[in-house]
C-alpha cells in the first residue's frame, strides 16, 4: 500500500502551532487552553511519525478526533487548515474514492459550521474566501496524494524491472561463462585426449613422435588454463579477448591437434581485416565434434575472406551426427553467431559432416 509523504503533515502541524502560539501571545495570552492546543499538536506529530505503516479505520479515526480537539482549542482559527490532511491521509489509507468523499465531507462540514455559528456568513467576504481557500487546499492535497501514489507505484515497477534485469544479466553471465568453458576447455580436453592416444600408440615405434604428441597435449592444457582464466577475468557480458588473428590462431590450433587417427588440413584465402573470435570458437566446436563424435579420419578447415565478411567451414569424413548430438556446444555456437549477425549451416550424413559459419565484417 502506498505511504503518505511524511513531511507534509509535519510542516502543517508546525505552521499551525507557530501561528496559534503567536496569536495567543499577542492576543488573549498563553493560557491552559493554548498549552493543551500545543500539546495535542505534538501528540498528532508523534502519532504520525510512528503510524505511517499503520493503515486502519481506528488509527484514522483517532487522527480525525485529535484534529477536532485541536480545532476546538485553537483560539486563532488557523487549525482549520489541518483538515486538508483528512482527505490527504484517507487517500493513502482507503484509496482515491474515499479520499475524494472525505474531502467533500470536510468542505461540507466547514460550511455547516459557518452556518451554525456565524450568522449571515454567506454574504461575508472573509468567510466565503475561507471556504474557497479551504476547498482549494483540499483539491491540492488530493492532487499531491495522487502524484505521490503514482510516483511510488512507478518506483516499485522500476525496482521490479531492475531486479528482473539483474536476474537476466546474471543468467546471461552464467551462460556466457558456461559456453566459454565448454568451448575452450572442452576442445582442449579433446585435443589432449587425441595427443595422448598418439603418444601411447607411438611410444615404442616412434619415441620422438610420441614426445611431440605429449608436448602438444601439454600446450593444449596450458591454453585451456589460460582461456579459463581469461573467461573468469572478463566478467562483462560477451567481454571476450579477441585472438591475435584468426588465421594465425587456427594454424596454431590445427598444428597442435593434428596427428594420430585424425589428419587435419587448413586452407585460408583472402585478406583478414580483423580477428573474429566467433569463427575461432566455431572452428573449435567443429574440430571437437569431428574428433570426439564422428570418428572422422580426415578433417578439412577452410576460411574465406571477402568484402562482405568471412566464412569458415569444417568438413570431416566421419559417420555424421544425428539430431540428438546437437547439444550445448552447437546451441551456444548458434547463439554466438546470432549475436554477431552471422549464419550457421550444419549438414550431416553417414558420409560426413559440414559445419559452415559466416559472419559480416
How would you sum up this structure in a few lines?
The chain is α+β, with helices and mostly antiparallel strands and 361 residues long. Helices cover 65% and strands 11% of the residues.
Structural description of this entry:
The chain is α+β, with helices and mostly antiparallel strands. Helix content is 65%, strand content 11%. The chain has helices at 7-26, 32-50, 57-73, 85-94, 96-117, 125-201, 207-233, 246-257, 277-294, 328-339; strands at residues 263-269, 298-305, 309-316, 343-349, 352-360. The protein has a five-stranded mixed β-sheet with strand order 1-2-3-5-4, with helices on one face. The two termini are 53 Å apart.
Keywords:
single chain; 361 residues; alpha+beta; 5-stranded mixed β-sheet; 10 helices; 5 strands; 65% helix; 11% strand
E-strand count? 5
Structural class: alpha+beta
**Helix proportion:** 55-70%
- Give the helices and strands as they follow along the chain: HHHHHHHHEHEEHEE
User: Proportion of β residues?
Assistant: 5-15%
**Separate helix tally:** 10
Choose one word for the global shape.
rod-shaped
Residue-averaged pLDDT, rounded?
79
Major β-sheet profile? 5 strands, mixed
Radius of gyration: 40 Å
- Separation of termini? 53 Å
Strand order of the largest sheet: 1-2-3-5-4
- Residue stretches low in confidence (pLDDT < 50, at least 5 long) are 235-242
Strand and helix layout:
Blueprint: H1 7-26, H2 32-50, H3 57-73, H4 85-94, H5 96-117, H6 125-201, H7 207-233, H8 246-257, E1 263-269, H9 277-294, E2 298-305, E3 309-316, H10 328-339, E4 343-349, E5 352-360
Parallel strand pairs: 1-2
Antiparallel strand pairs: 2-3, 3-5, 4-5
Amino acid at each position: 500500500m502506498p505511504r503518505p509523504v511524511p513531511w507534509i503533515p509535519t510542516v502543517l502541524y508546525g505552521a499551525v502551532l507557530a501561528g496559534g502560539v503567536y496569536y495567543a501571545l499577542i492576543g488573549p495570552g498563553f493560557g491552559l487552553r493554548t498549552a493543551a492546543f500545543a500539546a495535542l499538536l505534538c501528540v498528532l506529530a508523534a502519532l504520525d511519525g510512528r503510524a505511517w505503516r499503520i493503515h486502519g479505520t481506528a488509527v484514522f479515526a483517532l487522527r480525525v478526533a485529535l484534529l477536532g480537539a485541536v480545532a476546538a482549542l485553537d483560539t486563532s482559527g488557523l487549525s482549520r487548515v489541518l483538515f486538508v490532511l483528512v482527505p490527504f491521509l484517507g487517500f493513502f489509507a482507503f484509496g482515491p474514492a474515499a479520499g475524494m468523499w472525505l474531502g467533500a465531507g470536510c468542505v461540507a462540514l466547514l460550511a455547516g459550521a459557518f452556518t451554525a455559528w456565524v450568522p449571515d456568513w454567506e454574504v461575508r467576504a472573509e468567510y466565503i474566501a475561507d471556504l474557497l481557500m479551504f476547498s482549494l487546499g483540499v483539491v491540492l492535497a488530493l492532487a499531491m496524494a495522487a502524484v505521490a501514489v503514482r510516483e511510488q507505484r512507478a518506483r516499485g515497477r522500476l525496482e521490479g524491472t531492475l531486479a528482473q534485469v539483474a536476474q537476466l544479466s546474471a543468467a546471461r553471465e552464467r551462460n556466457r561463462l558456461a559456453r566459454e568453458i565448454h568451448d575452450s576447455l572442452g576442445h582442449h580436453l579433446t585435443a589432449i585426449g587425441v595427443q595422448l592416444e598418439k603418444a601411447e600408440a607411438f611410444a615404442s615405434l616412434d619415441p620422438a613422435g610420441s614426445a611431440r604428441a605429449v608436448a602438444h597435449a601439454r600446450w593444449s592444457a596450458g591454453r585451456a588454463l589460460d582461456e579459463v582464466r581469461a573467461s573468469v577475468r572478463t566478467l562483462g557480458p560477451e567481454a571476450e579477448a579477441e585472438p591475435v588473428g584468426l588465421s594465425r590462431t587456427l594454424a596454431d590450433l590445427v598444428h597442435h591437434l593434428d596427428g594420430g587417427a585424425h589428419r587435419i588440413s587448413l586452407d585460408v584465402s583472402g585478406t583478414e581485416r580483423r580477428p573474429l573470435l566467433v569463427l575461432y570458437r566455431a572452428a573449435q566446436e567443429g574440430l571437437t565434434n569431428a574428433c570426439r563424435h564422428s570418428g572422422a579420419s580426415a578433417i578439412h578447415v577452410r576460411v574465406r575472406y571477402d568484402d562482405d565478411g568471412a566464412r569458415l567451414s569444417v568438413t570431416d569424413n566421419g559417420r555424421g551426427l544425428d539430431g540428438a548430438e546437437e547439444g550445448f556446444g552447437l546451441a551456444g555456437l548458434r547463439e554466438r553467431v546470432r549475436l554477431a549477425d552471422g549464419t550457421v549451416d550444419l549438414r550431416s550424413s553417414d558420409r560426413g559432416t559440414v559445419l559452415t559459419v559466416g559472419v559480416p565484417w
